[in-house]
Amino acid sequence: MKLTFLGATHEVTGSCFLLDACGKHVLVDCGMEQGPDTFENMDLPVNPAEIDMVLLTHAHMDHSGKLPFLYKNGFDGQVFATTATADLCEIMLRDSAHIQMFEAEWKNRKGKRAGREPVEPLYDMDDAIGVLSCFVRCEYDREIMIADGIQIRFVDAGHLLGSSSIIVKLREDGTERTVVFSGDIGNLHQPLIRDPQYIEHADYVVMESTYGDRSHDAPADYATALAEVIQRTFDRGGNVVVPSFAVGRTQEMLYFIRQIKQNGMVKGHDGFEVWVDSPLANEATGIFREHMFNDFDEEALELLQKGINPIGFAGLKTSITSDDSRAINEDMRPKVILSASGMCDAGRIKHHLKHNLWRRESTILFVGYQAVGTLGRALLDGVDSVRLFGEEIDVKAEICRLPGISGHADNHGLIRWISAFLEKPRKVFIVHGEDTVCEVFADRLRDELGLDTYAPYSGAEFDLAAGRITAEPEPVRKKAEAVTAASAKVTKTFARLLAAGQRLIGVIRQNEGGANKDLDKFTREIHALCDRWERKDL
């Protein structure tokens, strides 16, 4: 029984783990790296044709995006996933293949003029269709024997429609081990999606740590905040343009806008239109509708029982063709436009930005994380102009952000999840977080909960039967990310300090409503500590 860590090790994307047990090679996730790419990842140590099966936690590209590439290189086994995950992968992997082919064609057009060798797409549509035929649809909370000695069970992770943590029970040569792969753990009280399901028993846990060093903003009355943005923008005669991730976030926004319309929260603009201008988002919304009765939370089910579609309302329009998309901006009536991509780096959103960024009447509303280096982040950081389609566009529109919604649990939610185990696991492997975050969160679980933690780098191997690390390679930083050992140590130390500050904020919030005497004492203690450090007495 051996577990090899391949991707999402000291990085947030590219989730991939190889489990060798009972004579089988089992891959857990096969994700694509997206955004910052700090470390070199170990190649798959076996031929893809030798992979017997894949266990997929959910449909996001950083967990599923390289499945067609696996198929292209010989994999023809089974991909076990929940039904909703399989349905979402039907559209997302095809969309990814389309993007791979389009980008390769674009590079080859430019490269041909420069005399460069042609490039091939990472995979094509045939590869996507091929791997989709390998999917085995599974139900939550059902034990499935996938091979002699290997039993799996999917439990709801509360992160995305169909998302799951996977419990893997192994029995080999008289030795039994239970390994839990957390997948991405969801936030509490998200619209539509159920809260994460907690797990009580495991020998080993492979746990994500995306927000292991921070707390989310205090939950807001999201519908009210959104209604205020729409109201003031419409009163100016402008559009509300929302760069929105096609799968998950778009459907959440529709849920809130339905609430706004139902309760008459925007005055003087009755019947305003809401356009979803993203083919992928429109297809995903259809899948959400198909799974309403099986996968939505209690609040959404109550609406369904009353005959109310939680993500549908009068005035909701969908744009399919390019002509449909162009027509949206030809109509000067104020409207809400939801379009992808969520970080403004590709897709139809760039056309809507071109038509609205220069208008003082309009608002660009961000409702999701904007990574450093993206157009969305540049707009949030206050740039005066941007270049779109070869044209310089002045930024005159209102740029704002609505915090509060996240598909990921924050550090408190992560600790709540791991604390639900009735007995301490033998070891908790910390993955799926930025370099310093993995270390900080591993330290916190060790210090506060007494857990045996380990944040592996790509290529690390662990013997599950013997309970020991059998390979621990040195991390290899990519050249663009190379730093000295001393500077890396300083960075990690400072990250621990930031994490401690986040914890202090959490403790302060927990004491809201406490006795004034106790709160005064707490305040004095914090001021005294700050005074000492400002004077550098320590």
Beta fraction of the residues? Answer: 15-25%
List unreliable stretches of 5+ residues: 481-490
How many separate helices? Answer: 16
Adjacency order of strands in the biggest sheet: 6-5-4-3-2-1-22-23
Helix content: 25-40%
Query: What is the SS-derived class?
Result: alpha/beta
Radius of gyration: 24 Å
Number of strands: 23
Mean pLDDT over the full residue set:
90
How far is the N terminus from the C terminus? 49 Å
Shape: globular
Could you describe the largest sheet, including whether it forms a barrel? 8 strands, mixed
Characterization of the model:
The protein has helices at residues 61-64, 67-72, 83-114, 125-132, 222-236, 249-262, 279-290, 292-295, 298-305, 322-330, 349-356, 375-380, 411-419, 435-449, 485-510, 516-534; strands at residues 2-7, 16-21, 24-30, 53-55, 78-82, 135-138, 144-147, 150-156, 164-172, 175-181, 204-208, 240-243, 273-277, 316-318, 335-339, 363-366, 385-388, 391-394, 398-401, 427-431, 453-454, 461-463, 468-471. It has 16 helices and 23 strands. An eight-stranded mixed β-sheet has the order 6-5-4-3-2-1-22-23. The chain has a seven-stranded mixed β-sheet with strand order 7-8-9-10-11-20-21, covered by helices on one side. The radius of gyration is 24 Å and the shape is globular. By secondary structure, the chain is of the alpha/beta class. α3 packs antiparallel against α4, α3 packs antiparallel against α7 (279-290) and α14 (435-449) crosses α15. Mean pLDDT is 90; it is low at 481-490. A hairpin with a 2-residue loop joins β9 and β10 (175-181).
